[in-house]
Each structure stands twice: as structure tokens, then as C-alpha cells.
Design brief:
The strands form 2 sheets. The chain has a two-stranded antiparallel sheet with strand order 1-2. Strands 3-4 form a two-stranded antiparallel sheet. The chain is globular. The chain has 19 helices and 4 strands. It is mainly α. The chain folds into 2 domains: 268 residues, no CATH class; 254 residues, no CATH class.
Length: 535
């Protein structure tokens, strides 16, 4: 079908990177488990420690036993399903609401293809991508000599969750008038259902030997819960995965029906009416950029506050968990490499904050590409606003957004450690690591700007891929036993850290140099760059 071929030409690089990152996580996850938790006793102790801490339990998989396969599923299944879900959401919105905003849907609707065929092609395209992802995940696990039945069900659960969120993305594209709104709605549903599944596991009943949990009924309200209830390498029950597949396909059919009863360019959730006259604060181009992106910035800042609260909450319990199982301290030390265990926990969570800040910066710079593709940037540039000034405004707002997220996270962390016995040492970690991760996030600001200037049509896909790869190598690389040199490619892994009471600057000056050169180069190259509309 021509539409499918066209989608494959547009998406082959993005889908390849998403799928390879997921498969790499599956394959390297087994190496991490066997190296870090080599004995059955180690794995049992970790599971017992996790069940004793509801905060950790919310962000892990479903304990279903202590064998290597069962523990691997506990460690990585939530993240495999999340990667599949994000890939599917962005694919669904890009080829429905995104094409509608760009005017491609209206052109196709004027041909014999009609209005429904593009959405049907998107459904087939998304399902096929998830099938490939699921098969490769299963083969990667079987290549690690794990049980074939459990490996196939892990792949099926990942693919089924992707299909479920493909349907959610398609429905969101019908409800919202913009691709940005559809992506935001879908991602918030993803976050909400992920937390709902975690709460359902926390409210469950642990077994007597503390290696298994019978989840509460809340997990059946979440696609992540359906994937977990497959219990690969344990009961190997495929029915919950089929529930996710059916859910996604039902939503896909509903999205086709909804599209047939609305006008092109409209959504079922109406746009908020704007003012007749703009506020005086909108008289400058950088104020316009802030107005376009402030909602997303607030959302990322809320995520930063939660991260800061979790960092201090977990640091207070770290000593108790390490006393139960020293292997926990070894794993955290691999990721954080800080001084005491409490300092390491704070360091790990502030790495997650750096990832959130980088995502916010990429989203803001990607907005510049969207404005250019939709033709609204041309209206701004027709005024006394040069190309360099226009891009500079996006760089400044992205940097300001990083500062807001870092400040919000640090304030939440400071509030959490106030009055604790080692508040001074933890405050030093919060300050040093927080500012360092903010600098790492700025690296992705300038990298996205360079991609936007040099490869405008690849801005969104390449920028998000860079963040994804840096996260995999920087946060999960040490845990999964990847060579240490690979982690140095991630800005998140070379930021300053605190060891005891001393501060190790590590790659700080390299990061500063990259930010300075990248910003200068992107602005200089933008001077002679022509506009590149969608197409």
C-alpha cells in the first residue's frame, strides 16, 4: 500500500532507534542481573527489601519469584513496556493530528483514498512496529539462554502495551486540536496509568517468603498492569497481554469512527478562546515563545518537585535497605558513584531530574521546528525579527526552563532534608549534582538547536533519540554491565559529584565547552539558513 510505504520512509530511522534501544535494554538487562545479583540469596534479599519500601515498589515491576528470569522481568519489564508505549504514542499522533496540522490529511482526503484510509494505515503501521519490537525483544532474551516461553511472553507483553497506547494516541489525536496537545494528553495518561499500576502493586499481598506479590484490583485499570500480570517465567499467562491488544484495537476503531464525524482541523475538545488583544507582555518575540511553552514547562517542573521529594524520602531509608542487603548499595554505587549510600540515592534521583530538564529543553526547541513547519514562524520573521534572534529566544527560554526545573527539584530536596542528622552533606550533594545535571541538560539544548539548523526535518526524531540514548547509557549502562567507556558518551554520567565531603568536577569543563560552542555554532549557522516548511 502506498501510504504504508510512505510512512516507512518517514519513520524508518526513528523506529529503528526506538526498537534497538528497547532490545538493547532487554539484552543488557540479563547481563546486569547475572553480574549484580549472581546468587538466589541476593535476589531474595532484594525482593524482600523492595517489598518493605512502598516508594521503591511503585517504580519497579511485579515480583513473581527469585529465579533469573523472574527477577529480570521484575527489573526491566516496566521499562520495556514504557519504551513501546512512547514509541506508539508519538507514531500515532505524528501520522494523524500531525499530518492534519501540516495539511497532508486534507490533500489525501481529496483523493479516492478518503478520510479513513490514512488512519487505518497508521494503525497497521503502528501494530507492525510493535510486532517487530516484541519479536526482537523475545529473541534477545532467548539469546541470553532464558526460557523461550517466558521470553516470548515478555515480547508479547511489551508489544501489546505498545498497541494499547497506540490506541490511546489515536483517540487523543481526535480529541485535541494540536499534535502538542495530543502528545501531552497521551503522555499524562501514560504517567497516570504507570503510577496506578504501582499503587496497585503496593496495595497487594506479599507471599510469606517475600518473593511474590498478589496485586490489588487497581492494576487491571492500567495497561502496564496487564503486562505485569502476564508474569513471564512464572505463570506465563498470555490472557492479560491479549487484553492490552484488544483495548488498543478497540480504541483504533473508535478513532476511525470519531474522525468520520468531525471537520478536518477541529477536535472534540474545543480550543480555549483567546483574548481579542494581546497583553503588553507579549510584545516581544521571547515572550511569545514563553507563552507557547509555559504549560509544558510547568508540567516538567512538577515532575522535578516529585523527583526531589522522592530523592530525600529514599535517602532516609537507604541505610535500612543496605543493612538488609549489601547488594543494593553496590548497585546504587554503580549508578551514582557518590560517597555515602544516602548521597548516592540523592545523586541517582538528580540524574533523573537532569533527564526531565533535558526533555523540557528538547520539547521547547522542537516547538521551533513545529512553528516553522506550520508556517507560523514565517509570520514572526516577517516582522523586524531576524532568524538569529528568533532561534536565540528559543535557546533562552529552554535554558530558563532548565533553571526552573532544577530550582524546583532542589527546593523540594532541601525541604525534605531539613532537620535530618546529615543535612549539610546531603545539601552539598543536592547543590553540586543538581547544578551539574542542569548543565548536562543544556548540552541537549544546543544539540537540538544544531540539529534544527542543519537537519530541520529530523529535529524531533534525532533530538529525542539523543536523549533516549544518553539515558540508556548514562543511567542504565552501569547497571546492565555495559563497558564504562560507553557511559562517557552521556552528559548525565560525567557531571560533578560529591565523594565524601570533596567535589569531583569530572567532565564539567567539557560540558561548558560543548554548550558554548554549540550555542555559538547554531546561531552562526542560522544566519544563512532558509526556512524549511513541512513536506
Amino acid at each position: 500500500m502506498p501510504l504504508l510505504r510512505q510512512r516507512l520512509r518517514r519513520d524508518w530511522l526513528q523506529l529503528t532507534l526506538w526498537i534497538l534501544a528497547t532490545v538493547l535494554m532487554a539484552y543488557s538487562g540479563f547481563a546486569g542481573v547475572t553480574q549484580s545479583y549472581a546468587t538466589l540469596e541476593d535476589r531474595i534479599e532484594v525482593l524482600a527489601a523492595v517489598m518493605a519500601n512502598p516508594v521503591i515498589m511503585m517504580f519497579r515491576g511485579l515480583p513473581s519469584g527469585a529465579s533469573e528470569g523472574q527477577f529480570l522481568s521484575f527489573e526491566i519489564l516496566p521499562w520495556l513496556t514504557m519504551l513501546a508505549a512512547l514509541m506508539s504514542i508519538f507514531l500515532a499522533v505524528r501520522h494523524t493530528r500531525g499530518d492534519e496540522e501540516a495539511g497532508r490529511t486534507e490533500l489525501l482526503a481529496a483523493t479516492p483514498a478518503g478520510r479513513a484510509l490514512p488512519t487505518i494505515a497508521t494503525v497497521i503501521h503502528g501494530v507492525a512496529a510493535n510486532v517487530v519490537l516484541g519479536v526482537l525483544v523475545a529473541l534477545a532474551l532467548m539469546g541470553s539462554k532464558l526460557d523461550p516461553a517466558g521470553s516470548w511472553l515478555t515480547g508479547i507483553a511489551s508489544a501489546a502495551t505498545g498497541v494499547a497506547f497506540l490506541g490511546i494516541g489515536l483517540i487523543a489525536a481526535q480529541l485535541m486540536r494540536t499534535s502538542r496537545g495530543a502528545n501531552s494528553l497521551s503522555v499524562w495518561i501514560l504517567v497516570g496509568t504507570f503510577l496506578l499500576n504501582g499503587i496497585g502493586d503496593v496495595a497487594g499481598t506479599p507471599s510469606n517468603d517475600l518473593t511474590r506479590i498478589s496485586s490489588s484490583g487497581l492494576v487491571w485499570l492500567s495497561p502496564f498492569g496487564w503486562a505485569a500480570q502476564v508474569r513471564p517465567y512464572d505463570t506465563d499467562n498470555p490472557v492479560p497481554a491479549l487484553l492490552g491488544l484488544a483495548f488498543g484495537l478497540v480504541l483504533a476503531v473508535a478513532s476511525v469512527a470519531l474522525q468520520s464525524v468531525r471537520d478536518i482541523g477541529e477536535g472534540f475538545i474545543p480550543a480555549r478562546p483567546g483574548r481579542v488583544h494581546a497583553r503588553p507582555a507579549l510584545s516581544s518575540p521571547h515572550a511569545l515563545v514563553w507563552r507557547l511553552t509555559n504549560g509544558a514547562i510547568i508540567g516538567w517542573a512538577v515532575g522535578g518537585v516529585l523527583t526531589g521529594m522522592l530523592a530525600t524520602k529514599l535517602s532516609g531509608l537507604a541505610g535500612q535497605i543496605a543493612g538488609q542487603n549489601p547488594a543494593v548499595e553496590q548497585i546504587l554505587d554503580k549508578i551514582g558513584k557518590a560517597g555515602s549510600l544516602e548521597q548516592t540515592v540523592v545523586s541517582v534521583f538528580f540524574t533523573m531530574m537532569g533527564i526531565l530538564a533535558a526533555c523540557a529543553a528538547v520539547q521547547i526547541l522542537a516547538r521551533a521546528r513545529q512553528e516553522e513547519a506550520h508556517g507560523t514562524a514565517e509570520i514572526v520573521l516577517a516582522q523586524p525579527v531576524g532568524r538569529v534572534r528568533w532561534l536565540l529566544d528559543y535557546l533562552l527560554v529552554a535554558t530558563f526552563a532548565i533553571a526552573i526545573i532544577v530550582a524546583a527539584t532542589m527546593l523540594a530536596a532541601f525541604a525534605g532534608i531539613a532537620g535530618s542528622r546529615n543535612a549539610d552533606s546531603l545539601a552539598q550533594v543536592v547543590t553540586v549534582v543538581g547544578l551539574g545535571q542542569g548543565l548536562a541538560a543544556c548540552v541537549f539544548t544546543v544539540l537540538t538547536a544544531l540539529v534544527f539548523v542543519l537537519v530541520p526535518r529530523g529535529t524531533i526524531g534525532i533530538a529525542w533519540t539523543l536523549v533516549l540514548l544518553a539515558t540508556v547509557f548514562g543511567l542504565f549502562g552501569p547497571l546492565f554491565g555495559l563497558p564504562q567507556w560507553t557511559t562517557r558518551f552521556s552528559p548525565f554520567a560525567v557531571t560533578p559529584m560529591v565523594t565524601g565531603s570533596a567535589t569531583d568536577l569530572r567532565g564539567t569543563w567539557w560540558l561548558v565547552l560543548i554548550v558554548a560552542v554549540g550555542a555559538a555554532a547554531s546561531l552562526a549557522l542560522m544566519r544563512r539558513r532558509e526556512l524549511h516548511p513541512a513536506g
